[in-house]
Amino acid sequence: MDRRDFLKNMSMAACGALVSSAGFNALAADNESYYQQFKRQLKANPILRGWEGLSADIAPREFTWQGKLPDALVGRQFYRNGPARAVLGNQRYTHWFDGDGFVHRYAFGKQAVTHSGRFVRTKKFNAESRAGRFLYNGAGSVIENARPSKSAETVNTANIALLPVNGDLWALWEAAMPYNLDPTTLETKGQVSLDNALDGVPFSAHPHADRFGNIWNFGDLSFFGQPAMVIYQLNSQGKLLQYKMVSAPASYVHDFAVTDNHLIFYFPPITKQHGAETLIDSMQWHKDQPGQLLVIDKNTLTPVMQVPFDSGFVFHFGNAWQQGQQLVVNACWYNNADVMLNGVNSVIAEQAQQHHRSTAAQIHIDLSANTARLQSTNHEMEFVQFDGRFTGKPTAQQFGVYAANTAGRADYNSIAALNTESGVLDLHRLGNDFLTEEPLFIPTGNKPGEGYLVNTALNFKEGATYCMVFNAQHVSDGPVAWVKLDNYMPMGFHGAVI
Amino acid sequence: MKTLLPALTSLYCISATAANVEIVFSDISSLRGELYIAAYNSADAFTQKQAFQSQIIRVYKSNQTAVLADLPAGDYSVMAFQDLDANRTLNSNMMGIPTEPYGFSTNPHLMGPPSFDAIRFTVGEDDMSITINME
pLDDT, tens digit, for every residue of B98-107? Predict the structure, then answer.
């Protein structure tokens, strides 16, 4: 295991957590396995607790609320998915993204939260559990004596996101089909087959509902070498209404934005080269080439506009809407794809300051002039959320994780509500001992942005994960209710509230 | 007995130029349907889907075996799929990717259909066993 792999794991942390320059200077000789390296580093560098991982399901335990849970949230369930099995036998994945999906459930009672968690029983999880070792290379990790994987489905970890549908909870990855979970027991019920022709076809991790009860998603076929995407339209019950394959740049795309009439995609100037051992190693960034914006008409599922756009990278989009012939699209904009590909280089160079975080930005698209421009800010935000009742309508409030005074680090230590019209920031700093995860918005009342944020965050020094509730209109007041779990949980990605 | 010897000797000679190839199908996850097995003995035959030998066997255990009997010495490739829905066809999705279990001799690391050469193995004078991973 080489130094680069070790660092690569940490570099990915910039996506929602951190890269600390501390601790990277004392790396062992090359003959120490990554499994051993991590174990040793963990003692000196507790921030690594965020990526230590889990090895077993977690039975329900109750934790009494501090503060007071708003009545509107009593009886709700908050879920989070993320990579968690990073170790099996004596091998540790070198890449954060590769851990098997683990779903946490926080059931909100009036007095207490009940927390439980369970690994998604994917085919991969079951096969590797039986074998007692990892069998396949991951998106970024190389495994000793790896078996060839015939398709992406073989290595589907279901570890990115969750979609509540029709009383079920779908666990999503981005290059394969969803797994269906029981929302109470978290037991895996099987895979979701939308149509025979779609078996084994990617259903990405960021489906979006519009105001009309449709669920939209895409599947990136460039994982299979095809410069195309599948566009899906489902009804609110998760039934497939239609799908269509459309030409699209072969790049890497994680998320998209939805207006009343359009779906908007951004393709960074990334190509995938043949012959690399892992997907991420195959990705090449072309800084001198533009990205591409693609606008698809929701009614016909056909592209209506494709234009070159700034060279950059986007994991996540916020709300988007149409005003006349203008589309306004909120996005977390990276100036380059280091977060996906090369973050490691600046760590090696001990230039941690150069770890670019994303900033809250807007893409303005002129449909009649066939042009688009980027309007960025200095607000370092990721994992943005908004009031989903107003998808496709102009909204000003955007919620997310935020970086405030994180000198020398590339993580996000705060929760924020940013008014994207006025620039007013409503911020709560959890402090530099915390790594924050995506806050989810739960609407109450009728006004846009009226509601609560639920969030989890890891205090890596204490070794405890917290679950917190904020008033979305008074974030800087701090959490109105919170619990501290009895242990620390690995850093996860996306969640859902039922 | 003496009169039988020449006949036995000639039988022995035939078997010396051919071998039985046992195929172990590993990691079969659904114990149902049938395995369709086809062995090809040249690139041309492979391209034209002219199997030298083919078999259909019922699946009832996770490491099902089959035997290709008396294969003359030479190079072969084997393709197999598990027909789960009894339509005698390897089902595939809109991208053309199979949606029923399948496997190839040599268990190559590849995405997409193989060539004869990519999955070729050599049969000599001795009986042999190969494993085809079906997961």
Answer: 899 999 999 9
Taking CB atoms and an 8 Å limit, are B29 and A150 in contact across chains?
Answer: no
Instruction: Give the per-residue pLDDT at A45.
Output: 87
Annotated binding site of A for Fe cation: 206, 254, 316, 494
Q: What is the pLDDT of residue A24?
A: 36
Residues of B in contact with A225 (CB under 8 A): 111-112
Given an 8 Å threshold on Cβ–Cβ distance, is B135 in contact with A150? yes
Give the pair of three-digit tokens for residue A100.
Answer: 């098997």
Specify the pTM: 0.88
Chain B residues within 8 A of A226 when measuring between CB atoms? 95
Domain hosting residue A161, numbered range: 3-497
Mean pLDDT of the residues in chain B:
88
Contact yes or no for B97 and A200 at CB 8 A: yes
Fold (CATH) for B2-133: Immunoglobulin-like (2.60.40)
For B101, which residue in chain A has the nearest alpha carbon?
A150
What total of structural domains would you count in chain A?
1
- Residue A1, pLDDT > 60, answer no
Across B93-131, b (16+ Cβ under 10 Å) vs e yields bbbebbbbbbbbbbbeeeeeebebeebbeebeeeebebb
Cα–Cα dist A490/A474, whole Å: 28
